[in-house]
Amino acid sequence: MTNETQGSRAYLVGGGIASLAAAVFLVRDAGMPGEDIHILEELPRAGGALDGSGAPGTGYVTRGGRMLEDEAYVCLWNLLETIPTLGDASTSVLRETEEFNHRWPSHAAARLIDADGHILDASELGFTTADRVEMARLLALPESVIGARRIEDFFSEHFFTTNFWAMWRTTFAFQNWHSAIELKRYFLRFLQELPRIHTLSGVRRTRLNQYDSIVRPVQAWLERQGVRVEYGVRVTDVEFTIDEGGERRRAERICFERDGATGTYELTSRDHAFITLGSMTADARYGGDDTVPELVRDKRDGAWNLWETLAREAPDLGRPGAFNGNVDETKWESFTLTMHGPALLKRIEEFSGNAPGTGGLMTFKDSRWLMSVVVPHQPHFDGQPEGVYTLWGYALFVDEPGEITGKKMSEATGQEILTELLGHFGFDDIADEVRATTTVTTVMMPYITSQFERRNIHDRPLVIPRGSVNFAFLGQFTEVPEDVVFTVEYSVRGAMHAVYGLLGIQKEIPAVYHALSDPLTALRALKAVFD
Predict the structure, then answer these.
(1) What is the pLDDT at residue 487?
(2) What DSSP state is assigned to residue 211?
(3) Can you tell me the distance from the alpha carbon of 14 to that of 388, in angstroms, rounded to the nearest whole number?
(4) Which residues of 445-476 are buried (b: 16+ CB within 10 A; e: fewer)?
(5) What is the dihedral of CA 278, 279, 285, 289, to 10 degrees?
(6) Per-residue exposure over 103-128, b if at least 16 CB sit within 10 Å of its own CB, e if not
(7) What are phi and psi of 93, to 5 degrees?
(8) Is the pLDDT assigned to residue 381 strictly greater than 70?
(9) What pLDDT does 4 receive?
(10) Does the pLDDT value for residue 426 go beyond 80?
């Protein structure tokens, strides 16, 4: 126990992976007793965007799956190397993940599929000299100069027709109108992936979905340490005091609602608050075989409302409207198939050449929805029985009419989305069998790419704002220099900065990986661009 943690309590607002990681660091690295740590979560389950739920009869669902990667995810691996798996206390989650990927390495053999159902040679990235010059120009500009400009402000039309852009955007979920700053950061952060973007062989996956493989083991470890997760708690405000000189700020009160009643947590001079801002999965709504998920536009989730309240009180606490102000730019829809028979998966394996369990992402490059699907290693859910299989997919252009059904994805039922998918594969001969044995769960997420929205350099608050003595911010909407949002690494790295910085922990935070500092990696990337 450090001097900073003696006699102190920690309140963590939000139960996503950032808060869970922060709680681990408080116990493991700061020596804070677990019973003094309170995680306040509005929903009935922790994990945030790392989800996985359902059953064989009603259908499984994951809203999405974040890619993992050896070189870039150093803070995540630091977290997971001390968390035991649920099934074997002697094996860490990191070790399990390493062993799984050694046995089942990622490899996409059909990364891009054209309108005629032919597998394209995705190793041909398709760059022209002009494309290369435009990429170099973006990489050379400082973020302060790029500002709130779009990706499409930096590239000509041809760049957006290349195989490279079709793969890059669907791997990471970029839209042409998203922030050019974020694209630049992704180029630098994942430069090592460029030569293997057509196979995704650098991607690392967990043995099961990320809720079962990461969240549940982390939460079980925390509970054994005495950490409390309080569900149904909607934090509405955090009140701060400022000293007479205006230099030091302290969080003194957390205001919340629970079961229709209001309440507060009073923070003493030794207590700390870690506050998650915003949520990319806020207001997600589900549909099924015969229903369409609702698109929520009025911010019913507490995470955005809390940040808006805080930002009104202090200008340096960010500008949430830059991220949640245009749902039509930040939404997309995903779907999970639960199949009571192997027909579709076997046909996909035969068509694609993807070996079973390798999780190869496939994108229908010419589809108006820009649909992508992946077959994860089976089973993908804890307790998933033999003879039941799952597939996950998503599309970026949900308001375009599909080629097969003629419907917008946003207006299509689960079975209609399945029909669209089968049509793009050209699997008409098994369509009736697949439809009869498949349950489809759809998810509409209004803010899923909100962290990619155009922004200025001060629109995200610092993890530890200027003058803070006992509070820090967590999640995808804080500013972590050089790192990239829409990754688990960003949440975990931010949590490490928050805990180490506030509590004065003298441990080195793993450095952000820079591929350009490795001459061999940089040479491979350069070769891929010019081949």
Answers:
(1) 97
(2) I
(3) 33
(4) bbbbbbbbbbbeeebbbbbbbebbebbbbbbb
(5) 160
(6) ebbbbbbbbbbeeeeeebebeebebe
(7) -60, -35
(8) yes
(9) 62
(10) yes
What is the share, in percent, of the chain residues with pLDDT greater than 70? 99
User: Under DSSP, is residue 169 helix (H, G, I), strand (E, B) or coil?
Assistant: helix
Find the range with the poorest average confidence among 116-120, 302-306, 353-357, 375-379. Answer: 353-357
Q: Do 154 and 180 touch, CB atoms closer than 8 A? A: yes
Q: State the Cα–Cα distance between residues 384 and 106, nearest whole angstrom.
A: 21
125 three-state secondary structure: coil
C-alpha separations of 462 from 40, 371, 455, 477, 479 in Å: 22, 35, 14, 9, 5
Q: Are 207 and 100 in contact (CB under 8 A)?
A: yes
Q: Which amino acid is at 357?
A: G
Q: Which residues contact 383 (CB under 8 A, 6 or more apart)?
A: none
Measured CA to CA, the distance from residue 337 to residue 354 in angstroms comes to 18
Q: Which two tokens stand for residue 417?
A: 């989305």
Backbone φ, ψ for residue 164 (5° rounding): -55, -50
What are the φ/ψ torsions at residue 495 (nearest 5 degrees)?
-65, -40
CA angle 19, 23, 29 (to 5 degrees): 135
Kindly report, residue by residue over 465-504, the tens digit of the pLDDT.
999 999 999 999 999 999 999 999 999 999 999 999 999 9
Q: Please name which of 27, 93, 73, 2 lies closest in space to residue 12, comparing C-alpha atoms.
A: 27
In this structure, what token pair is assigned to residue 246? 């205006």
CB 195: neighbour CB atoms within 10 A?
Answer: 21
